[in-house]
Amino acid sequence: MKSSSVSDEHIIEAIGRSRIVIRDGVIVEIGEAQVRKCPLAKRFAYTVPVITIDAVKANIEHRIKAFGMCTPDRDVIDTREFVGFGATELLSFASRAGLIDAAVLSCDGAGTVIVKDPALIQGIGGRMSGLVSTSPIAKVIRRIEKHGGIVVDKKHASLDQFAGVEWAYDVGYTKVAVTVARPEVAVKIRIAFPDTLIFGVHVTGLTREEAESMVAAADLMTSCASGT
For residue range 104-157, what is the model confidence (pLDDT) as tens digits? Predict the structure, then answer.
């Protein structure tokens, strides 16, 4: 949870599920990772051969500089493929192919968003890691809306994938996809909106029971470094 006294704070989990806190574009806290090595991290644009606090810090600082992650300079449009099997790469392709007409994603500076533009899908999620909480950034929100996206909670930038899916159907989308990190949310969406394409993401560290619950509810999921 972000501090109620801080107006610009973003918490992400990345690179072995290190917990990273960013305030006003500056990293202020990095926690220990749950794993030490990751084959994908070795192939990042800014590589992380061995997961250490210093290596994580350097990678996240590179992201902040390269595309404005967690800042008003956040790039939200991109067509490049960063991870061939990545969730947003697959959803962006599905959007271009007409398999889905909206994707519900999480974006730093905006929270839960509803997106139809394939380039916006990829721009938001292509280089983003697990978002735990975020603060609203007006410029980022306006940029998303300029490209046809819907920000579910512009005041607080809350993360609520269930509300995002519900809103997407309410405004007329019929082929909705959503990225979900928690199995209980995936189950809730599956029960209420059974036709939704659910993509399980950021699953490092799930228990066996949680992993089985996610597998049962999701259509697709990445296994990451989960021991289960």
Answer: 999 999 999 999 999 999 999 988 889 999 999 999 999 999 999 999 999 999
- Which residue from 39, 144, 129, 149 is spatially nearest to 87, judged by alpha carbons? 129
Residue 1 located in a structural domain: no
- Sorted by sequence, the CB contacts under 8 Å of residue 158 that are 6+ apart come out as 111, 112, 152
Question: How many CB atoms sit inside 10 A of residue 191's CB?
Answer: 9
Neighbours of 188 (CB within 10 A): 16
Which one-letter amino acid corresponds to residue 75? D
Instruction: Enter the pTM of the model.
Output: 0.91
Cα radius of gyration rounded to whole Å, the chain:
16
| Coil vs helix vs strand at 49 | coil
Range of the domain at 132: 9-221
The answer as to whether 3 is a domain residue is no
Q: Beta-carbon neighbour count of residue 223 at 10 Å?
A: 12
Q: What is the dihedral of CA 81, 199, 147, 27, to 10 degrees?
A: -70
